[in-house]
Amino acid sequence: MSYPPRRYVADSPFGYPSEPPQHTRWYDDAAGPMVRPYAMTKGRTRPTGREFDLIALVVSNVPPDTADLAVGPEQGLILDLCQNNALSVAEIAAETDLPLGVVRVLLGDLLDAEYIRVSRPVPPAMLPDEHILREVIDGLRAL
Q1: Which of the chain's termini has less CB crowding within 10 Å, N or C?
Q2: What InterPro entries would the database entry show (predicted)?
Q3: How many CA atoms lie within 13 A of 141 on its CB side?
Q4: Which of 109, 94, 92, 96 is nearest to 44 (CA)?
Q5: Domains of the chain, CATH where assigned
Q6: CA gap 114, 128 in Å, rounded
C-alpha cells in the first residue's frame, strides 16, 4: 500500500502540515476529561515496596494545613481521607472511586515519601491457636 505524497505548506513548521488538533473526550459535564489509571501511576502496576493487604490500615502523617506537598490530586485526596482516622486500603479505593491496583501504587508512593503510616494485619500464623484460647476461657470460667 502506498501513501499519498506529502505536500509542502509554506507557513507550517518543516514545510509540512501540522497534525490536526485532538479533541478531549468528556464523559459528562461535571467529570471533566477522563484520566487513564496508568497515567496516574506512571505506567506502574505494583507498588515500589511491599504489597498492601486489603485490610491494612492507613493513617496520614501530614499536618492538615500543609498545602505545598508535591503530590497529585488523587494522592492529596487519599491524604485528606486518612487525616483524622485510619482507613483500610479497600475503603480508600471505594471512597476515591479508583481501582484497587491504582490505590496500592499511590499508597506505595506516599509511604516512600513518609506521608502515611500503614499498620499491616497480623498474619494468621502468628495468631494464638483456637485450642489454647478455649482452655484459657475454660480456666477463667472455673475460677
Answers
A1: N
A2: DUF742 (IPR007995), WH_DNA-bd_sf (IPR036390)
A3: 6
A4: 109
A5: 48-122 (1.10.10.10)
A6: 32
* Sheet arrangement for strand 87-88: 87-88, 57-60, 116-119
Beta-bridge partner residues of 119: 57
Please report, for residues 7, 18, 67, 130, the alpha-carbon distance to residue 107 in angstroms, rounded to integers and kept in the order given: 51, 40, 18, 34
pLDDT tens for residues 90-118?
Answer: 999 999 888 888 899 999 888 988 889 99
- Residue 25 and residue 65: Cα distance in Å, rounded? 35
DSSP assignment of 74-119: HHHHHHHHTSSS-EEHHHHHHHHT--HHHHHHHHHHHHHTT-EEEE
Per the structure block, which three cell numbers stand in for 76? 492529596
Which residue's entry shows cell 489509571? 37
What is the three-class DSSP state of 46? coil
The residue among 103, 126, 108, 128 whose CA lies nearest residue 118 is: 108
- pLDDT, tens digit, 9 for 90 and up, residues 28-62: 555 555 667 767 777 777 777 778 888 899 999 88
Taking the C-alpha atoms of residue 96 and residue 99, their distance in angstroms, rounded to an integer, is 9
